[in-house]
Specification:
single chain; mainly beta; 3 helices
Length: about 180
């Protein structure tokens, strides 16, 4: 469980959007992922196996898609961080590794379907222990996101409902 602060800069807006949120990742039962911003949640993104679900509780709408076919930055994050060098090379083209001010910035270009929406994805780790501290995303339209990890809880209590929200009363839509 990771508590984070997300700062978004959109090309269509003059001001920045800052939101707090929570990320859960569970590899014990396949690839399970939940990202939510706001409290109460304004947006929820989950991944269970190969399905990506985006839920907007305020408007009572949701969108489902195969995880591998989405071009959103959430699909990249929901796919998890590679567990081997071979998997890393399959998912990303390495652009640059730079050390600066006690951290390492690993900049990559996603490969395949995921590269359509994302120009550069940067993982920022602490130099001493290599722990992921933040993720920066530059989208093809010039928009950007910076996701800073504020607090990490290892082995939190989770349940299936966290990763599989009840969609009773929600309407299917296409958010594009």
């Amino acid at each position: 469980k990771v508590e984070f602060t997300q700062t978004r800069r959109l090309t269509s807006l003059k001001s920045t959007i800052r939101q707090r949120g929570v990320l859960w990742v569970d590899h014990r039962k396949g690839t399970r992922f939940r990202w939510q911003t706001g409290d109460p949640p304004r947006t929820i993104v989950t991944r269970v196996d190969d399905e990506l679900l985006v839920v907007r509780p305020r408007s009572m709408q949701y969108e489902k898609s195969p995880a591998g076919e989405s071009n959103s930055s959430m699909a990249i994050l929901a796919g998890g961080f590679p567990r081997s060098w071979d998997e890393f090379q399959r998912k990303y083209q390495l652009l640059e590794v730079r050390s600066q001010d006690g951290s390492n910035r690993i900049s990559v270009q996603p490969r395949g379907q995921l590269s359509r929406g994302v120009r550069v994805l940067s993982f920022v780790t602490g130099s001493a222990k290599g722990i992921l501290q933040s993720i920066d995303v530059t989208l093809r339209d010039g928009s950007s996101q910076k996701i800073v990890f504020d607090r990490v809880v290892t082995d939190p209590q989770t349940n299936d409902a966290l990763f599989e929200p009840d969609l009773t009363g929600y309407r299917a839509t296409n958010f594009k």
